[in-house]
Amino acid sequence: MTCRSRSTCATCCLAYAMCFMVTLSIIIIVSIMGAIKGPSAVNEMVEDKISTVIDEMMVLEPSSEIFQSWLDPQIPIYQKFYFFDVQNADDVLNAGAKPRLVEIGPYTYRVSISRYNLTFGDNDTLSFKQKTWMEFVPELSVGYENDSFTTVNIPLAASVSVLKYADWFSKMSVSAVASIHGHQMFIKLSVGEILWGYEDPFMKQLQDLAGKEAIPSYVVGILPHVNGSVISSVINTGASNITELNKLIEWNGMTELDWWGSKEANMINGSDGSILHPEMTAEETIYVYDQIHCRSVPYIYKDDITFYDVPMMKFHIPWYTYANASSYPSNDGFCLQDSCPDGILNVTSCMDANFGISAPHFLYASPDIIDSFDGIEPNETKHQSYMVVEPVTGVSYTQRRRLQMNLYMESVDGIMQSEGIRSMYYPLTWIEMGVDLPESLSYGLQNQMSAVEGYDDMVFYAFIATAIFCFLLFILTAICVILQCCKKQGVRDDSYVTMKKDGSITTKTYTDGIPTDIYVNIPNEDIGNNNVTDEQKCEHKCDIITESTVLSNGHTHKYQTDDESSSDDEHDEVLWKVQISETNGNVISGPETQV
Predict the structure, then answer these.
(1) Half-sphere exposure of 29 toward its Cβ, with a 13 Å CA cutoff?
(2) Per residue in 86-130, pLDDT tens?
(3) pTM of this structure
(4) What residues form DSSP beta bridges with 558?
(5) Which helix (H) or strand (E) holds 170?
(6) d(CA 276, CA 66)
(7) Rounded CA gap, 71 and 115, in Å?
(8) What's the maximum distance between 2 C-alpha atoms anywhere in the chain?
(9) What H or E segment, with its residue span, contains residue 71?
(10) 125, 329, 566 from 64: Cα distances, Å
(11) β-bridge mates for residue 267, sequence order
(12) Is 333 exposed, middle or buried (0-12, 13-18, 19+ CB in 10 A)?
C-alpha cells in the first residue's frame, strides 16, 4: 500500500500498530500457556515415542537390551538365613515353659540362576528351564555352615502330627524307634544340616518299616531339594502387550495349583519377580509367585521414595497375605484345617511336613502367637517384604523378600516324646532374599532416564524458542513495512487521468516519485451514453468503476484502482473528471486534472 498524504500514512501506521498489538497479544498468551502447560503438553507429545523405546528395551526377545541380563543374571542375589536357638529346651519339654529364643544370623549364600532350553512359541510365549544353586559366603555371615543350634526335630515333630489319628500300635512303634536313636522333640543341628538336610537314622528305620512309598527319603532338612533344583516355566515375552511381560503361564507344568481350597487360591498370578513390566502405577497389585509360600504373593503400593536421585515407588506385602478368613474373608481358600491361626499360612498341602509360613518374627500375627515366645520382636522395618520400582521402565532397584518357616508341634497321646509340649508353631528360621541393582547399573539407568527427560525439555524449549523467533520476526517485518510506508512524505505519490477523443483513458500513477502509465480503453459511445461497464480490462491491471454520473458539463467517473505492484491489497480511490462535447458527445482533451 502506498500513502498519498500525511493523513493516509498515519492511518496506515495505526493499522499496522493495531495488527502488531493483536499479534503480540496472541504470541504472549500462547507463550504463557506454553510455559504453564508446557511440561504436560510435551509429555503427551513424546509419551508414545518413549513408551516404544522402553518396550523395545524390556521385551523378552534376543534383540532386546534386557534379554541377556535375564538369561544369565550377573546382578548379585543374596539369601540370608537367621536361626532361632532354643535356650531352654528341657524346660519346654518337661514343664511346658515358654520357649526362650535367641536369633543368630545372618548366614549368607550367593544365589546363582541359569536359564536354558529356551523355546519361543505362539502368542508371545517363551518356555525354558531354570536352575538355581547357592554358595555360602562366609565374609557376609556371622559364622560358618558347621555352626550348630538347638532347634525343632523336624522328622519327629512331623511324624507326631501325621500319627495324631493313627492306631495305638503305630504310635508306640514310632515312639520306640525314636527312643532307640535318642530322639527328642528338640535336636542340635548345624546350619548346613538344618537347611540342606542330613541322613536321619530315625527316618531311615521308619522307611525300612513302612516302605519307600510311604517314606520316599530319609534325608531331612528345611530346603533339601532347593539347592541345585531345576524347574520349568512358560512365560509371556510382552511382545504384543508389554504389561504381560514375564507373566507366568505355566510353572513346573501346571497352569494352576492343586493344593488349595478354591479356584482363586489356586491361580498362578503374576511373575517370578525377576522382571516387572514397564508403566507401573500405584493402583495396581504386583503378584509374585513364591515357591516356599506355595502361592502368588501380592505386593501393594506403599509410598513414593527417591532412590539414587531417581523417583521410585515402593511396594510391600500387605498384612492380609497371612491373615485367616476371619480377618480377611478372601483368604478362605488358603485354610484347609479346622482352625487357621491369624498371621500364619499353613503349607502342609504342598510340603512334606506341617510347615507354616509367616512374616519374620510373626509380623502381622495375632498377639497371642507373639506372646508365646521370649525373643520374638516383630519390626516392620526389619521384617517387612518390599520392592522399590522405577515405574516408567519397571526396573526393580532393590528387593527384600522376607519370610519365616515354622513347624507345628503338638502333644499326641501314645508318643511319649511329645508329652507336655505346648501345641503351636515353632519358628525354625527366617529368610531374606535380597537383590540390589549395582551402583554402576543404577547410574546407567539414571542416565537413560535423564536422556528421556532431556528429550522432553528439548521439545519444550524448542517450542518456546519458536514462539520467540516468530515474535522477533513479526516485529522486524512490521518495522520495515511501517518505515516503507512513512519514510518519504515529500515525494510525489498521486495519480492523474487523461481521456482522449478516441475514448482511451491514460492514468499516470506516481509511486515514490516513479511514474507508471496504465491504459484503460472505454468506447466513446459507452461514455456518452453512460454505459460504462463495472469492470474494464487493461494491460497491467483492472480499474473497477465504483460510481458513474452524467453531468451537464461533462462526465464524472470515480475509479478505484487496484495496484498489484503495491505492497498491500487496499484500493486507492481516484476521482477524476473529463469534458464531453455537447454537440457530438466526444471527449474533449484538455489539461490533466485531478478532482
Answers:
(1) 6
(2) 999 999 998 889 999 999 999 999 999 999 999 999 999 999 999
(3) 0.71
(4) 547, 575
(5) helix 168-180
(6) 11
(7) 5
(8) 157
(9) helix 67-71
(10) 16, 43, 63
(11) 256
(12) middle
